[in-house]
Amino acid sequence: MALLWSLLFVDPLIILSTIVCGSVSFFISFFDSTGHTQMRAARAWSRSLLLFAGVRVTVEGLEKIDPGGSYVFVSNHLSYMDTPVVLSHIPVQFRFLAKKGLFQIPFLGWYLTRGGHIKVPREDPRAAVKTLTHAAETIQTHRVSVLIFPEGGRSDDGLLHDFKEGAAYIAIKAQAPVVPLALTGTREILAMHSATFHRGAVKLRVGDPIPTAGLVLRDRGELTEAARRKIVEMLEDTGLDTSVETAR
Known about the structure:
The chain is an alpha/beta fold. The protein has one domain: 3-Layer(aba) Sandwich (Glycerol-3-phosphate (1)-acyltransferase), CATH 3.40.1130. Helix content is 44%, strand content 15%. The protein contains 8 helices and 7 strands, in the order H-H-E-E-H-E-H-E-H-E-H-E-H-E-H. The protein has a 7-stranded mixed β-sheet with strand order 1-7-6-2-5-3-4, sandwiched between helices. Helix 1 runs parallel beside helix 4, helix 5 packs parallel to helix 6 and helix 6 crosses helix 8. The longest helix is centred in the first third of the chain and has 27 residues. The chain starts with a helix and ends in an 11-residue tail after the last helix.
């Protein structure tokens, strides 16, 4: 029944919303070089996805975020629904680091390109370092935030895995605080390798910003582990199995 509901209702509406919001975003990009108006279109798209999929979101700790501030948000990654949840519920100006393949998708790719989001060339380590530096410069120049999933991809088993150091590198270069995010429930909405949506509840917890003032690049390993430990703590507080701490 859930598969039929997904195929006949959720998927067509998501495709329609992506086409409409992507087209609107592409059009207004010619009149707004800041990307702020495009972010409104992206938030409308995110909210529509959650509405169509029957997702109810509870947010804790939002008061820790200054809407006018610049941050590097790091989150565990369980589902394709993670980004819409964060995007629609944290009121800051975001730019994303996204894999190159997403920029090749019609409408979505147009939005990412025109919105000033950052393409990550995973197959080229030297280019990847330049990308991280570019992301830090974007934070400083445009006073925006970035969202990164430091595990490097979605968790197939639902556990929290090792973090890569790219987020810490960007935060230290930009001297921007790192904000840990803990997501629960999105895997039950849309599991990895699944095309079936299930209605349900999601919780997004916002951790205390971790300052980076005065840190240098050799501190990125310690900063990465500090962010990971905080996410582990927040996941444990939600009642998630503490085996997340050992999935390394």
